[in-house]
């Protein structure tokens, strides 16, 4: 990305760097053509952006996004509901057992 930086390189070096980038990635003609008076050409960064590593990175990013959506919106809320229901049931069972033991204690002993 810094090969065409005018603060770092001189005009001659920028020209050489541009030729190097055109050889490596190709050239993209936006405006004009063979017979046009004005032609705008750039280094074809599409080839650089969609090289093998970038495609791998993009696929990994999409996979992680889908993974986060699936777990964040489907799996974790279901687990939270499951554990909440189990916890409520355990509280109800503990309350019933405590009430039963209190009834047993109060029925065996007299208070006065």
Cα-atom Rg, whole angstroms?
36 Å
Termini separation comes to: 92 Å
Strands in their spatial order, largest beta sheet: 1-2
Q: How would you sum up the global shape?
A: rod-shaped
Q: H/E order of the elements?
A: HEEHH
> pLDDT below 50 for ≥5 consecutive residues: which ranges?
none
| Helix share bin | 55-70%
Count of helical stretches: 3
Task: Give structural notes.
The chain has helices spanning 11-25, 45-49, 52-108; strands at 27-31, 40-43. By secondary structure, it is mainly alpha-helical. β1 (27-31) and β2 (40-43) form a beta hairpin. A two-stranded antiparallel ribbon has the order 1-2. It is rod-shaped.
Strand and helix map with partners:
Elements: H1 11-25, E1 27-31, E2 40-43, H2 45-49, H3 52-108
Antiparallel strand pairs: 1-2
Task: Fill in the keyword field for this structure.
two-stranded antiparallel ribbon; 3 helices; single chain; 112 residues; mainly alpha; 69% helix; 2 strands
Question: Quick recap of the structure?
Answer:
The chain is mainly alpha-helical.
């Amino acid at each position: 990305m810094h090969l065409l930086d005018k603060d770092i390189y001189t005009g001659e070096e920028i020209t050489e760097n541009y030729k190097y980038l055109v050889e490596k990635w190709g050239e993209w003609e936006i405006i004009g053509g063979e017979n046009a008076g004005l032609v705008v050409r750039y280094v074809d960064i599409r080839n650089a952006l969609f090289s093998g590593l970038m495609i791998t990175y993009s696929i990994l990013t999409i996979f992680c996004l889908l993974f986060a959506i699936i777990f964040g919106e489907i799996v974790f809320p279901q687990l939270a509901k499951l554990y909440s229901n189990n916890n409520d049931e355990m509280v109800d069972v503990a309350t019933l057992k405590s009430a039963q033991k209190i009834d047993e204690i109060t029925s065996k002993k007299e208070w006065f």
